Amino acid sequence: MTDYRNLGRSGLKVSQACLGAMNFGEDEHAPCDEAEARRTIDAFLDAGHNFIDTANVYTGGQSERVVGRAIAAKRDSVVLATKGRGAQGPGPNDAGLSRLHLTRALEASLRRLGTDYVDLYQMHAWDPDTPIEETMATLDGFVRDGKVRYIGCSNFTGSQIVEAQWAAARSSSTPFVSLQPRYSLIARDIEADVLPAAQRHGLGAMVYSPLGGGILTGKYQRGADPDPETRYGRRAGWAAALNDQSLDIAEGVKKLAADMGCTSTALSLAWVRGRRGVTSVIIGPRSEAQLEENLPGFELELTDETVHQLNELSRPAVGGRGR
């Protein structure tokens, strides 16, 4: 039975699994056509999950269109999240968190999604050129107009979370209820500052890249170039991610998973799902088959001993904190 959790300090209930739609569309980085995307979305919802996350910059807007068409007949049963900030044109006001840009960006997202509201509107990254007071006031206006139900942020630091929440409090306006950071067994840096700040200020974490871009699935081999069909095989700069530390962790996870009779994927997802401060875990399958590989990670329950082993295996060398 699907377990739903409140998103941060709000009454919004979301599934522990969140379907990330970054791969939906057709370009060199997202080879998932609309038919396959729809099958994946349907299978995800049929499994009892209700949370889908996209962004206006994913596959040049294709992702929002695909998601919107796929959920049109069941819109009220889906918690739909998207993001704004990224460039939507070449002009000086075509990016950022200003009132001008966000107003345009939200209207464009609503058109692509084919809906008159989004459940969660997230700021994709901090904008140093716009006062946070302007951004939070703009978002509060969206909520009051009924175009947005809740607001959140992505890739913010601990201090940026605090600034945003204080700005909202000073003007008695709508605060953030969510944070979307990267988090996995090979990327635990948010434990030291970001996650504690989010918890103190009422934000639930919906974390992305829980499999480390696929490294934790065991698909990448030490000393071998990645398969061109994989994420790192399609993108430049893969060598920096496929370092000895990451591969050591992936190999340790694979051995522990074999001893437990489960997959590395399920074990890695179960660890992230159980971390303090994590509300939902974003998975980004490129096919229905990959979705089916991910879903067991939301049913697997880990013993304290297994959690301890994974904590020790992945503990950051400097600065990080365990559970």
Task: Please explain how this structure is put together.
There is one protein chain. By secondary structure, the protein is an alpha/beta fold. The relative contact order is 0.13. Helix 2 crosses helix 3, helix 4 (132-144) crosses helix 5 (158-170) and helix 5 runs parallel beside helix 6. It has an eight-stranded parallel barrel, surrounded by six helices. A two-stranded antiparallel ribbon has the order 1-2. The chain has one domain (4-214, 268-300): TIM Barrel (Alpha-Beta Barrel), CATH 3.20.20.100. The chain has helices at 34-46, 62-71, 99-113, 132-144, 158-170, 194-200, 231-234, 238-241, 244-260, 264-273, 288-294, 304-314, and strands at residues 4-6, 13-15, 17-20, 25-27, 30-32, 51-53, 79-84, 118-123, 148-154, 176-180, 204-207, 278-283. It starts with a strand and ends in a 9-residue tail after the last helix. The longest helix has 17 residues, at 244-260.
